[in-house]
């Protein structure tokens, strides 16, 4: 039975309770139609969880090597993930959303969620900034990506089955590309702060909680790795309601950059536990 049908039945039963109660309730009363507004207000809107970032948020886990279910009751997953070549990952590919969803189901088995992911592999923070600097995008980003911030908002789901959606959490894994450039590392903090402030304004929830999965690319190949990591860490005190989750010690592929199949699940598990603590 669909959600709205369940609630209509509950409301109709509730309106008819007095017919079975005291004598005072036995007076004939005109039958009243139940409006769609009443139905919507009687149903708690699904919680909207937004995931964004680059390749480790897109994910490279292989579903065929796991026993992950194809879908989860009460959770709608919307995947707008792309590789650096702007191609959609294969049907067996998954990212940290799987671990996140598992944690949500464990903590909130009856709550409905919409998990929306917009992530692009290889993207720099310059690609994500609401006000892009075309010269810096050309030097340290990817002009072919266009404005990822505009796309994030464009595909942000606004309704589900007539119920209004607003972001209840924003989860971010990104920074490895910026860690290649000392200038990008130096500018990461202010740029990321601007991005979060704008999303809180434009996304419809000025106080939306933010969870950062702190990147950890190998410093010997990424000269600004420590600068990006420090910038992400500082964000927890620069803005209210921002949390950071360490992703250290999670298994990766041979490139020591991208998480492997069990690693993707563990990344999601860590983020999901932090998310649960915020939502409870």
From TrEMBL:
<protein>
    <submittedName>
        <fullName>Sialate O-acetylesterase</fullName>
    </submittedName>
</protein>
<keyword id="KW-0378">Hydrolase</keyword>
<dbReference type="InterPro" id="IPR005181">
    <property type="entry name" value="SASA"/>
</dbReference>
<dbReference type="Pfam" id="PF03629">
    <property type="entry name" value="SASA"/>
</dbReference>
<dbReference type="InterPro" id="IPR036514">
    <property type="entry name" value="SGNH_hydro_sf"/>
</dbReference>
<feature type="domain" description="Sialate O-acetylesterase">
    <location>
        <begin position="47"/>
        <end position="274"/>
    </location>
</feature>
<dbReference type="InterPro" id="IPR052940">
    <property type="entry name" value="Carb_Esterase_6"/>
</dbReference>
């Amino acid at each position: 039975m669909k959600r709205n049908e369940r609630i209509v039945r509950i409301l109709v039963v509730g309106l008819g309770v007095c017919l079975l109660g005291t004598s005072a309730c036995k007076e004939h009363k005109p039958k009243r139609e139940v409006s769609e507004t009443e139905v919507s207000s009687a149903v708690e809107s699904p919680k909207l969880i937004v995931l964004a970032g680059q390749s480790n948020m897109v994910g490279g886990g292989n579903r065929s090597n796991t026993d992950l279910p194809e879908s989860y009751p009460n959770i709608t997953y919307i995947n707008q993930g792309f590789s650096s070549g702007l191609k959609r990952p294969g049907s067996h590919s998954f990212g940290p959303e799987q671990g996140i969803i598992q944690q949500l189901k464990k903590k909130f088995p009856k709550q409905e969620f919409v998990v929306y992911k917009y992530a692009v592999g290889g993207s720099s923070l310059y690609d994500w900034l609401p006000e892009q600097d075309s010269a810096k995008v050309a030097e340290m980003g990817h002009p072919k990506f266009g404005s990822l911030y505009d796309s994030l908002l464009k595909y942000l789901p606004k309704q589900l089955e007539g119920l209004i959606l607003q972001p209840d959490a924003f989860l971010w894994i990104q920074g490895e590309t910026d860690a290649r450039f000392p200038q990008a590392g130096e500018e990461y903090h202010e740029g990321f702060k601007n991005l979060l402030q704008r999303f809180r304004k434009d996304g419809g929830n000025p106080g939306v909680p933010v969870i950062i999965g702190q990147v950890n690319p190998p410093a010997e190949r990424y000269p600004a790795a420590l600068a990006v990591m420090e910038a992400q860490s500082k964000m927890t005190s620069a803005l209210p309601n921002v949390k950071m989750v360490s992703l250290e010690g999670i298994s990766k592929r041979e490139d020591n950059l991208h998480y492997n199949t069990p690693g993707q699940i563990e990344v999601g598990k860590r983020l999901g536990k932090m998310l649960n603590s915020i939502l409870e």
